[in-house]
Write a structure and sequence with these properties.
about 750 residues, about 20% strand, alpha/beta, six-stranded parallel sheet
Length: about 750
């Protein structure tokens, strides 16, 4: 966390390097480690005990792993190949075991001699390599290895007793080399300045920071590891929560125009026309938002809820409140398809209330305009004029709303849909268009567990819509194992035909578009010849254009099949969506462009091809496109991954529950630590190394309350120089901007 001069020392310097220049270069390029402090905060992922063997059954595919295991068997085979036509090619196959599972190592050519001599049956070693599959068996090809020679003097000294730390590593730098580098810089840990206030640290019985760093890297016992991790988790949670609390405190000092609803205004007229009653959840969340809008500092609220829970309606009511109070509201959507969809649904919901200044518009009406990059010049000019004069109370658009030439008469509220798809600068530019900072409502259909909301969006108040409106149908989800049971896939297409015959429609989703552009982008890859096994195990993801063609000529012959993907012209995309919404298309083969916002109540079936290539939350989002009407929905997750694989377990979890919050927990538990604040959120290297947002709920909640109390009493942290230093280290320039701009 903390960087004082000893810890700020670069690992690589022109004249003298702390480590060898080659090692320092790899650490900088592949692990993002530049200083002594960075290396000290590169903690072991786990520890092996001398004499205890690793579980080989849980190895993740395509990941670089380090395992400690024993050689069970080693065999040298000869074979003929183009390079060794007379049968003089050599392949060494080594089987290692942990007592419950086995893993094959393979070495070829001249690389067989040293391991053939070293890896005799009974030998124990650490092996590092990338997990791949050959002939349906897991293997490591040409792994690096380090022999563990019992209690030899050197081994004991290097690995500090009986616990062997295994570090997050790369193909270029094995765990044990990182371990040796850490030992070199470990004395500098004594210089670490403690970011925690002494009263907090002592009150909670936490180790001093230098001691925690020593124990995490050189533990004598498991208790040392537990104590060190408890302390370092607190550092991460507390420093992050202080950053968020300061951001929140600063926002509370900003002025904003209070926007209160009128008793007989546009909102009342809109509510009177609704053909249904708002759910309890919608009413409660609306009350929270209206209370925020009525204050004289900017609202910062996160509105999250399941697909179809009615977030857009809640956001629209907030926008109408602001229009009632004399301001304008902007809804920012991530794609043109979604902006057009929002514009259609908002104008349909409002009816003549959206026709302000037009013939047929009613007394309270306002104008609702659409602004996207692909609009014609005349329509664009008219929309810009309506915004500048205040004629348009509501504007819906893409990032085109952010351009310099877009001027608002009085921007009072910004609603951002699917917040994670917008860059920090984009959100900030739109907020900068108000005379005073506008109120901000962020919407997401990806349910976020409470702990993640506190960690990532700690500066936002959170509202949750967890009730589905009446009339929404359940969605049945099933995994279709295409490789194990090909007849299941045939049955899937029969089910699609049945839905269409019953008057419904279906989506087929593929991970890729699939024309020559993608393949031509890397001619070297295309030129490489692959073995049959490579083709089977590592074939490219299925593509929209190929699948649509195969379906139209094969199992779905005679049905009206169309394609939709992001590389189409916006007008063409809109035309395809209109035809599908009107029921003129039976099956839409699409990429994830349909992931958010597309609303076709008559679509009841979805087949997701190569479902293992999508994340859990994304699958849940996609699935939410069906079952939006009165007929039940069906979602089929097609995969070729074997039953025991982690990918299949993930798909089974999606099929087993429709609870997005439960799935988001599963999703996070399956990711490696740090992903939560990784590039998806801030564009910066993750700050979370030991804190796990799902497991450490209690630590995060306690750190949050401590941080808020501290910042309220001392906003500038004048009395805590160690904490200020830690904040500077956490908030590199990119992350600082992320927190500043929300």
């Amino acid at each position: 966390m903390d960087l004082v001069p000893a810890l700020e020392e670069p690992l690589k310097q022109p004249l003298k390097s702390v480590l060898g220049p080659a090692t320092a270069k790899v650490m900088a390029e592949h692990l993002g480690l530049h200083t002594v402090g960075d290396l000290l905060h590169h903690y072991p992922r786990r520890y092996e005990e001398r004499g205890q063997l690793t579980h080989l059954a849980d190895l993740p595919m395509d990941e670089h792993v380090t395992v400690v295991a024993q050689v069970a068997d080693a065999r040298l085979h000869s074979f003929a190949s183009s390079r060794a036509p007379r049968g003089k090619g050599q392949r060494l196959e080594v089987t290692i075991t942990d007592g419950s599972g086995r893993l094959q190592l393979v070495f070829f050519g001249n690389g067989v001699h040293k391991p053939h001599k070293d890896l005799l049956p009974g030998t124990r070693a650490m092996f590092a390599g990338k997990v791949s599959v050959f002939n349906h068996r897991l293997q490591l090809a040409h792994p690096a290895y380090e022999l563990l020679r019992g209690d030899g003097e050197e081994a004991v000294e290097t690995w500090a007793g009986s616990l062997i730390p295994l570090y997050p590593a790369t193909a270029k730098l094995e765990s044990w080399k990182i371990g040796k580098a850490v030992q070199t810089v470990l004395p500098a840990a004594q210089e670490a300045l403690d970011p925690l206030p002494p009263a907090l640290r002592e009150g909670r019985g936490l180790l001093p920071l230098p001691e925690a760093l020593l124990k995490i890297h050189r533990p004598a016992t498991k208790a040392d590891i537990a104590d060190a991790r408890a302390r370092l988790k607190w550092d991460e949670a507390f420093v992050l929560q202080v950053a968020l609390a300061r951001r929140r405190y600063a926002d509370a000092q900003l002025p904003a125009v209070a926007r209160r609803p009128r008793a007989d205004g546009l909102l009342t007229a809109f509510d009177d026309r609704l053909p249904f009653t708002l759910t309890e959840g919608q009413q409660k969340v609306s009350r929270e938002i209206f209370a925020d809008l009525a204050t004289e500092h900017p609202m910062h609220r996160l509105l999250q809820g399941e697909v179809g829970s009615g977030k857009t309606l809640v956001a629209l009511r907030a926008m109408l409140t602001v229009v009632d109070a004399g301001g304008q509201a902007a809804l920012l959507a991530p794609t043109e398809v979604l902006a057009q969809q929002h514009h259609r649904s908002v104008t349909e919901m409002m009816g003549d209330l959206a026709e302000g200044g037009m013939l047929g518009g009613t007394e309270h009406a306002t104008k609702v305009v659409l602004l996207t990059g692909s609009m014609g010049a005349a329509a664009r000019r008219k929309a810009l004029l309506d915004l500048a004069t205040g004629e348009a109370g509501v504007v819906i658009g893409t990032h085109a709303l952010i351009e310099d030439k877009v001027q608002f008469h009085d921007l009072g509220l910004v609603v951002v849909d699917e917040q994670h798809r917008f860059g920090v600068e984009q959100r900030d530019a739109l907020r900068g268009k108000g005379k005073q900072p506008p109120h901000l409502l962020v919407m997401t259909a990806t349910p976020i567990p409470r702990t993640v909301a506190m960690t990532v969006f700690g500066d936002l108040e959170t509202s949750v819509l967890d009730q589905l409106p009446a009339g929404r149908s359940p969605i049945a989800s099933h995994v279709v194992p295409a490789a194990d049971k090909p007849h299941f896939l045939s049955r899937a297409w029969e089910r699609v035909r049945e839905e269409v015959e019953n008057g419904h429609q279906a989506y087929v989703v593929c991970p890729r578009i699939g024309d020559d552009i993608e393949e031509a982008a890397d001619p070297k890859k295309a030129a490489k010849k692959k073995s049959a096994e490579d083709e089977a195990e590592k074939r490219p993801p299925l593509a929209v254009l190929d699948v649509a063609d195969q379906l139209a000529k094969g199992p779905l012959q005679g049905l009206r099949v169309e394609v939709l993907h992001g590389r189409m012209h916006p007008d063409d995309k809109d035309a395809v969506m209109r035809r599908f919404a009107a029921g003129d298309t039976d099956v839409l083969v699409a990429t994830t462009v349909i992931e958010v916002g597309v609303n076709v109540p008559n679509a009841t079936a979805m087949v997701i091809m190569d479902a293992d290539r999508f994340g859990v939350s994304q699958l849940h989002q996609l699935r939410g496109r069906v079952g939006r009407g009165s007929a039940p929905g069906l979602c089929l997750l097609v995969t070729e991954m074997p039953e025991a694989s982690a990918a299949r377990q993930r798909l089974n979890a999606v099929a087993a529950t429709l609870d997005g919050f439960e799935l988001s927990r599963i999703d996070l538990e399956q990711r490696r630590e740090g992903d939560v604040l990784g590039q998806a959120q801030s564009g910066a290297r993750s700050s979370l190394r030991v804190l796990e947002v799902i497991e450490d709920e209690e630590v995060i909640a306690e750190a949050r309350s401590e941080a808020m109390a501290l910042v309220t009493a001392d906003p500038d942290l004048d009395r805590l120089p160690g904490l200020r230093t830690a904040l500077d280290a956490l908030l590199d320039e990119e992350r600082e901007q992320y927190l500043e701009k929300g």
